[in-house]
Input
Amino acid sequence: MKKNLLQENYIKQAFQITVLTVVFIACIFAYAQLTRPGPLGTPFTLIDSSGKTVTEADIRAKPAAIFFGYTMCPDVCPTTLLELTNWLEKLGPDADKIGVWFFTVDPERDTPQLMHEYISVFSDRIIGVSGDPKKIHAAIESFNIAVEKVDSGDGDYTYNHTAAVLLLNKGGHLRGIIPYQEKDEIAVQKLKSLAESADR
Output
């Protein structure tokens, strides 16, 4: 009984540490981005989840919400994608004014086909982005995203990564972020404001 209780406490503490780490990374990211001039993302050519070529021009063509994660993520990624799906539904037709992108931080495992299958569980408004690992990692770095590969010790691995959703104006300039586990009403208002900026 005591052993089970200790295991439960250990799991809870490990989860809390993970969440705090993610929040800390998000804060560092937010500061770095808000003090960085110019549009985010250097020129790149990658593959989206439908198998089509995607470049930085596609991202900048209209206001964008971008999240970075991976399909084998145990908690942060599915939680954020589910929240994004709900927020977009609450926006209604205005959601079509925003490009919503999910860049993998694990291109070695996340093929475009796997990204398509994974994202289809959430929303057809979200477009996955994968491709050549070197090109993906270069693109992620150009968005100033924090990514850390963590060896699990059994031959497998996970990633610590920035958990915030980037909000970019048309043209690629940072407008703001939606932090991990933001309140629904605040997140929806930020996305609504982003969508409205498309008409200006």
